[in-house]
Amino acid sequence: METPPSPRKTIPxxxxxxxxxxxxxxxxxxxxxxxxxxAFHLAWLSLFSCFxxxxxxxxLIPIIREDLxxxxxxxxxxxxxxxxxxxxxxxxMGPVCDMVGPRIACATLSLLTAPIVLATSLVSxxxxxxxxxxxxxxxxxxxxxxxxxxxxxxxxxxxxxxxGVSAGWANTGSGLAQLVMxxxxxxxxxxxxxxxxxxxxxxxxxxxxxxxxxxxxxxxxQDLPSGNYKEFKxxxxxxxxxxxxxxxxxxxxxxxxxxxxxxxxxGYSFGVELTIDNIIAQYFxxxxxxxxQMAGTIAATFGLANWFSRPMGGVVSDAMGRSFGMRGRLxxxxxxxxxxxxxxxxxxxxxxxxxSIVVMxxxxxxxxxxxxxxxxxxxxVSKRSLGVISGMTGSGGTVGAVVxxxxxxxxxxxxxxxxxxxxxxxxxxxxxxxxxxxxxxxGGMFCAPSLDPNSAxxxxxxxx
Amino acid sequence: xxxxxxxxxxxVLSCLIQACYGAVLFSSLKKTLQVTTSTKQxxxxxxxxxxxxxxxxxxxxxxxxxxxxxTIEVTLCYAPISxxxxxxxxxEDHLNKDKTCQFKLVERPYNKxxxxxxxxxxxxxxxxxxxxxxxxxxxxxHEVAYGQSTNDQKTTNLFExxxxxxxxxxxxxASVCFSAxxxxxxxxxxxxxxxxxxxxxxx
Lengths: 464, 203
Fold this sequence. Notes:
The complex is a heterodimer of chains A (464) and B (203).
Chain A: H1 35-54, H2 61-67, H3 72-100, H4 102-119, H5 126-136, H6 142-153, H7 156-189, H8 195-201, H9 204-220, H10 233-239, H11 243-254, H12 257-267, H13 270-288, H14 292-304, H15 306-349, H16 353-377, H17 386-408, H18 416-431, E1 438-439, E2 443-444, H19 453-462
Antiparallel strand pairs in A: 1-2
Chain B: H1 2-21, E1 30-31, E2 33-38, E3 44-45, E4 50-57, E5 71-78, H2 80-83, E6 101-109, E7 115-120, E8 128-137, E9 143-148, E10 159-162, H3 169-202
Parallel strand pairs in B: 1-9, 3-10
Antiparallel strand pairs in B: 2-4, 4-7, 5-6, 5-8, 8-9, 8-10
């Protein structure tokens, strides 16, 4: 990203070391002083609220399904619908961020989807339930904004860490929702409110929280270290080379096969994580006869592990990159994701409550670390088309969730435990294409870097 | 050698007994209770309408059938039509996995005389088709017998319940107001930004 010239202002001084583009070169998660760290906290908090809202429904499904007379097919369709919306919104969000800046994009999306979250309390039929989940899924496009914002604020040496931590901490929203929503529901029920009204009232909490984070972003957020997009729009427009450039960047990204492979593997790491978030509370409630708060708590531990496991994935990727280069990053991703697949298979095979909980916890660490490791490879695929590749990979995650739910969790042919095992098997198979990724100047999993200087230079040039 | 054999056998046997301990099968229960229900005509409203249940031992059975009955539990159970495509209401032979009867009407100590109950359908009962079943428990708390208000195929004497709607006018109004606030605050911010942009340009 270009640094916009600002002749009338003096160079701003920051409380954090920055590079020549004013991007931070260090990452201090417990400080709020510089615009970089403030942006980090606003970004992860607003994405957290979006995840919280989207996953506020699954823990209450045992109550909602009785009120709305939902069948298993309806619940499956709603689960699929909840991610279909985000496929397109994530793809569209990349260019939108580029046009209006991450601050406005993030706040607009959150403020427009908050009423939809509250509208959940108005649904009274299976069709409207599916529609609501579809519309709510749009808010997950804030993930692209989050990563884009971090890339604008943090320099290359810490961008992986910033990306991983902000995405990881935001993902814990899905876990916290599983824990908190049943508690809110139970608290409301204590006031002698029948259960069919109590669940509706509970949605006030996620919608207000989402609106609040959006307002905070608008008040305190800043697109770039030196200010907002609007202030530099004129200079940016002058230096832009026109629309052909945008299309070139778009097609450059779309025709890069590595982006498609990463989209597939992300679909089977993050996609599986999304699917599990959708079905796990109901699984424990139905199979092991635990009550709704216990099911929510167990499901929550899955999502809450994101707090450290996804950042850890990013850290491991960086460490493997330092020691073994790109080969290390790819092998690290393949190993972690395959182990996650094996654990998923065994999750469907164990039959006692406690062994299921233990396997699920270990599985959560591996599958979330795999998501973090994926975004350790993404920045290297294409420097010029980074936004497009990130959007493709991010969308691939939700496509994976949709496909998995459609094939395995939307009818009554397989029992839930068989479906979970089959999902693990699909994970192992769909991680194998990583072996095909090859970077001429860095190599691949089995091949060394190309010694042909012409081909290396050409590929590098494309990567500019 | 013999003592070791006996010890091993008793260990295995006790393990088997432990395994059977919690696994009472519905198919092993005797249908000795007679349960009848009477409701008003048409669909019943939860929270308002009531079901009158009468239960007791089938008098045509020999005396002593009910010697180990200690408590009776009367439950509301889903009819097959309400179990379709809903695995969380599935009928299983293992009683501790069975999800057919999820609402308890009453639990009373066993009494040889005919018992009656007027039960107002609770507001948590969802819209579905139901029948009533009574289980007899022995002193160990295991089911030993049952009776139900419908036939074995669960096709006769079923009644429908219409649940309350969870929606309230006040909730609807609050939702609309809040949604309006959300959209208006966004528009307000755009307006403020535009004004700030104009004033900085004028400076």
